[in-house]
Here is the input.
Amino acid sequence: MRYSRAEALRYLRAQANDEAAGILVDTVFLKLRNEVQARHVLQKHTCTILEDGVLLDCGVKFTSRSLAKHLEGCAEVLLLAATLGSKVDVAIRRLALGSVAEGAAAQAVAACIIEGYCDEVQERVESTLKQRPRFSPGYGDWDLTEQRKLFAILECEKKLGLTLTDGLMMAPSKSVTAVIGLSESVACVWNKCMECGNTSCPYREGS
Amino acid sequence: MNFRDLLGKELLFFDGAMGTMLQARGLKPGELPELWNFTHADIIKEVHTAYLKAGVNIVKTNTFGANRLKFAGTDIKTADVVAAGVRNAKEACAGFEKTFVALDLGPTGKLLAPYGDLPFEEAVDIYAEIVRAGSAAGADLVLIETMSDTYETKAAILAAKENCDLPVVVTLTFDIDGKLLTGGDVAAAALMVEGLGADAVGFNCGLGPAQMQKLLPQLLSFTSLPVVLNPNAGLPVERGGKTCFDVGPEEFANLMYDLISEGVSVAGGCCGTTPEHIGAMIAKCKDLPAGGSRPCNITAVSSYGKAVVFGKEAVIIGERINPTGKPRLKEALQNADFDYVCRLGLEQITAGSHVLDVNVGMPGLDEADALVKAVLALQGITDTPLQIDTSNYEAMERALRLYNGKPMLNSVNGTEESLEKVLPLVKKYGAVVVALCLDDGIPLDCAGRVAIAEKIIAKAAEYGIDSRNIVVDPLALTISTGGENANVACEVISTMSGKGINTVMGVSNISFGLPGRELINSTFFTLALQSGLTSAIINPQSKMMMDAYYSFLALSGLDDGCKDYVARYANAPKVSATIVSEMSLFDAIVKGLIGESKKATAVALTKEAPLDVINKYMIPALDFVGAGFEKKTLFLPQLLMSADAAKAAFDVIRDSVGGSGDANGEKVIIATVRGDIHDIGKNIVKVLMENYGYRVIDLGKDVPVEAVVAAAKEHGAKVVGLSALMTTTVAAMEETIEALRKEVDCKVVVGGAVLTEEYAREIGADCYAPSAVSAVNYVNEIFSK
Here is the structure.
């Protein structure tokens, strides 16, 4: 299981040299790691990039200009869904009850673990093509309701026990869905923070 | 001939995959296969027929995902889809002998609350609609399959049992480590399923035959029910971005031959299996006998995550969630502060409890409502099984129903009323029940108590409750009024133990009215353990009780090589009795040191009044940290650690004044709005506000508009804090504010990741709080603190 203290500290909005916070996230990682039941589904599809979105070989169209721009030059995409399972959510609630600091650190550590897990899954994909950064519903102008399309194609409920609430949140909460473009070269060097419309986001990087 | 006549008596065969077959015939990814019951009925029947020709006895209807959630927003009626599915299967079966139609129920596609947002009873209702339609259309059995969550499985079984008389078969999907998606293991799930009255239990999907073989022994040992296996054609393999199953028909048949021989009663297939796989299996295995049911003598309770088995090391049942003599818990229950109840639970788990007793009965409280909330709160934070402890029958039924697992119930006694009211509930919800050796009175001798225990066991048998699901409480009466009381209790324990019946006892009653109670209690505990006591209701935070327990385990050979004992006691630190603190409370809070903060508070309380300690040290420290956070000289982790340290100080103060620390604080209502299940931000705000002495009424997450309005009215709160994390849920925030404006005169402060100052103004909030500190500052302003 991949875990980076530096990443966890960034999610926790701590200073990189904050020793007490470093101990906090490390401690929480030890309490959390046995609760992780990471799973994923991954599918490869060929696609056609349109002006206002992306058409997959299975007939489903994702409508988003940002996504289309992000996937420019890609003839194939990977669709990915991954989750750490609901035990992690239960553990985060449990830790938060005892200590708000541990609760917040657990959120940060779990976010870090799911991102690392997605990286690992992607690294195992055997392909001569290069992978673009993950792009998820909610990024740019890609409407969150399109999450339902990804869920239907990947059968997230059945395969992962990953579900959507009426408010389109993922449950278990420590989960990721994404589209990953495949192309000869990583033509698009994409900074997801600078593309995002939420300019007041505390996690915004590179501003 | 019906299904029950054959189940477990001769080997029966399920069909294989439907989805795989439909995809091969043009079903698109993301398309709802159930609609093919209308649009492609011929293809559906063709698939059924292909399996029937291969020799199967049971075909699954094409209704796996047919539920009202899937068809929301269309004019498709679930009942019609289900009826069409059953009709197609029945028509296909015509002309084949010894065949049955299984009404197929899959997962709803939603995660149940509190893990997701689907309320338990709504899940029951969703399944009930399918069951009614399917049984009316003539299904022969109900198959609940591909379940990966015990809670949803329970909802489906209850729906089936409450809406038809058909046999119910349940198959769950485990991963290669033997875990459900929600974390449960084979034992926990099998215990619950059998308790709820299913006719057969087993595995499907997720794994191939080889992987299921590793999990099969556990299943066979934890259930007496006939076992069903519907594996995939091997583990799914990702190849070129597509999912493939590599086990071919011959190999599948060979693997299934071995599995069936271990005691399986019904076998078939799931993803990747075809009529060829199933046909090869039937050709190879058709002459094998069915495994049938097996005797199972395990007494165990379970949660969504794990099982606790009685009979080896005594099971410790933590007794502290009980308001009798606990003013702080009483206050928490009156204020619906279930976080406090959860903390009491967590402390006991840390101290060594295997099960938690939950009793919330007190005058002036709606016990059923409080018990349900306590059970839901506890099972949202721990997988330690719960013992539902109440004499209120309504509370009992509601808590048993919403419990996620095989519950323990405290208790039934030998009176006619208790037997008639409690035993049907024990049967329906598959509980392990505590049987008190009393009826109209408590017999003073062993023979009298054993006679009552036997009466209860016999009566339970009439209701179909196995004696392994009864745990006898001999009753510890205080030795201060009867010198033989301890001996009698121990004698009852050893008598029941001799009959193979498990026992449980509230140990501490033995010393009622005496000084030095822990000494008597712990010695009596050892005597009871030596007599064969298999579970004890005690305070696990009593060092003497746990010392007695661990030393007994070492002495009785239950602690192999005394490893646990050595680990626990070899390097035990010497506890210093005097409290010395070198740090001021102010510094301890600013530095976020919980231990120091507690000590400094205790020291401060020896010199100053509680209110002075709060106003002179705590509040200034919190202000200091809050200001640093706003100026960005301090960051989120320090703020939170300080909040924890202040909270610890506050707890010491509350305990010193007997629990009523903040009863007079100004009330603030906080909630995460409807549709939103993320509550970390709200919880941080709550802790900070409580540290400032506010009485925070926390309505939780996913809170309906009306509930916020009702609470604001009821409490006459001046401030309501609302949190929403997603753009999709800010709409609910706006609605909530609008509704509050119509009926209540209060200020509304809002926060959440996607909100901005401007956005907050647009939806009508009085204040936008970009951080927890700013929310507290605003509330302080309102109350001009």
User: Anything to note?
Assistant: The longest strand of chain A covers residues 39-50. Strands of chain A lie at 39-50, 53-56, 61-63, 76-83, 130-131, 163-164, 170-171, 175-183.
